[in-house]
Design a protein that fits this description.
With about 130 residues, the protein is an alpha+beta fold. The protein is built from five helices and seven strands; from the N terminus they run E-H-E-E-H-H-E-H-E-H-E-E. The chain has a five-stranded antiparallel beta sheet with strand order 2-3-1-5-4.
Length: about 130
């Protein structure tokens, strides 16, 4: 079973609803709760997978997911400012205002990565 956990800081200078809206633009099924200055919740990767295909960033996404994988878990940090317009952009490890931290766990992580962000040849998905 796949588990997708979202966590994002809400800084004093930020509007909680705008941060919530940014997360929901990528993960619309998130059940977000404010806890100690962070929006946290669980989601699915359905919309995320559609966005990365539309943006044609499958290879970059795949590289990030594989590079950050440990056992059955992988992590990525998304730029929350870019997410406000419904786009995916991977953030540095420690963005100034924090990013949307996504932790993914799956018993067969590589199969999940293959499904979400498949191998491409000349920009086209390779169906295996």
């Amino acid at each position: 079973m796949t588990s997708v956990r979202i966590s994002c800081p809400v800084n004093p200078s930020e509007d909680e609803e705008k941060v919530r809206s940014a997360i929901l633009s990528i993960f619309p099924d998130s059940d977000l709760v404010l806890n100690d200055g962070r929006l946290e919740g669980e989601a699915t990767l359905d919309r995320f997978a559609k966005i990365i295909r539309k943006q044609k960033i499958l290879d970059a996404t795949r590289a990030v997911l594989i590079m950050n994988s440990r056992g059955n878990t992988t992590r990525m940090t998304l730029n929350k400012q870019v997410a406000t317009v419904g786009k995916v952009s991977f953030a540095d490890k420690r963005p100034v205002l924090g990013g949307i931290e996504v932790t993914i766990e799956d018993e067969n992580l590589m199969a999940l990565i293959d499904k979400v962000s498949p191998i491409t040849v000349d920009g086209e998905e390779v169906i295996q």
